[in-house]
Design goal:
By secondary structure, the chain is an alpha+beta fold. It is built from 10 helices and 11 strands. Strands 6-5-7-8-9-10-11 form a 7-stranded mixed beta sheet, sandwiched between helices. Helix 1 packs across helix 2.
């Protein structure tokens, strides 16, 4: 029977043959590929399978069958430095059982792509080299096909008439769309989108040049609100938190945002957006005073938490 190291070496050879970058030609990616194929020691490549596997199950599988114990904080490395590239290369599919599953869902899974599976089942046979050449010749169109499928499942958001962006699928993106398309025209007409969070890409939309005009310079380490709008008529920056991400604007978050936007020449307004009132009721005790609450299923209403005005900024002192 082949040794575990032999399987790992062969998986690395396959990754190189498939043209993945050097950063993915390592043991971690080789073990992830073996997990996607459920290729336990003792099996031949012809026995490769196509189970649905999440990141943690992949790491558990590697630990059980190849005695490689990755630390829990390696999870993001496997996801970002191996599985993302597998998907981009068309080797693996992301959530093939439910393509519109939210990108940050704990139920997210990967699966070996059918054409890649058929190819890998011929590794270490006389047909391998011929099949590899045929696969590589048509892989570009295959990658384009799956890229289009992924794009179809994204959430389109109209930021100005005729101008759209798209965000990763999920309730978080749906609520951000509601904020931009329904909250902003009602309560900040003529406002301009400065920033919109995307769970799949932190900087889903970010006009850093516009934000700098107000005296605010941010880097990737700043914990941005989910949506930032500039209400031009009153020179306000509306900082909107979607409760589907990190919760409402509570006292702690209020202080964080004040600090993050401390240099802003535009005055600050803090808003928490909820998809419905039943979820809002769960957080009522946490919402900070002198902030606003907007509920998507009652879009024409705004709830003000105390203070001397309905919608507007307050002194930071």
């Amino acid at each position: 029977m082949k040794s575990r190291s032999s399987y790992i070496k062969e998986a690395q050879q396959i990754i190189v043959s498939l043209g993945l970058p050097r950063a993915q030609q390592n043991e971690r990616s080789a073990l992830s590929l073996l997990a996607l194929l459920n290729l336990t020691p003792g099996k031949s490549w012809a026995d490769a399978e196509a189970p649905l596997m999440g990141i943690t199950p992949i790491m558990d599988w590697v630990r059980e069958h190849y005695k490689k114990d990755y630390a829990p904080n390696t999870r993001e490395t496997v996801r970002r430095q191996t599985m993302h590239q597998f998907c981009d290369a068309g080797i693996a599919l992301y959530n093939p059982d439910q393509p519109d599953r939210p990108v940050n869902s704990p139920k997210a899974v990967y699966q070996i792509e059918p054409s890649a599976l058929a190819l890998l089942r011929t590794f270490d046979t006389e047909r391998w080299h011929e099949n590899l050449a045929e696969y590589l010749a048509r892989r570009e169109s295959l990658v384009e096909h799956y890229a289009k499928e992924r794009e179809q499942n994204r959430v389109p958001v109209e930021i100005t008439p005729g101008q759209k962006i798209s965000l990763s699928p999920g309730e978080h993106s749906e609520l951000i769309r509601e904020v931009i398309e329904n909250f902003a025209p009602r309560f900040a007409p003529g406002s301009v989108l400065v920033y919109a969070c995307d769970t799949g890409d932190k900087w889903g939309y970010f006009d850093a040049a516009l934000l700098s005009e107000f005296g605010v310079e941010l880097d990737a380490h700043g914990k941005m609100p989910d949506v930032v709008l500039h209400y031009k008529a009153r020179n306000w920056l509306l900082l909107v938190e979607s409760v589907t991400s990190h919760g409402p604007v509570d006292a702690k978050r209020h202080d964080e945002l004040n600090a993050l936007f401390a240099d802003s020449r535009a005055r600050l307004v803090f808003v928490t957006a909820f998809p419905n009132r039943s979820l809002m009721a769960h957080y009522l005790g946490e919402i900070a005073w002198e902030t606003e609450v907007w509920v998507a299923d009652g879009p024409s209403h705004l709830i003000h938490f105390n203070g001397e005005r309905f919608l507007g900024p307050y002194s930071r002192s």
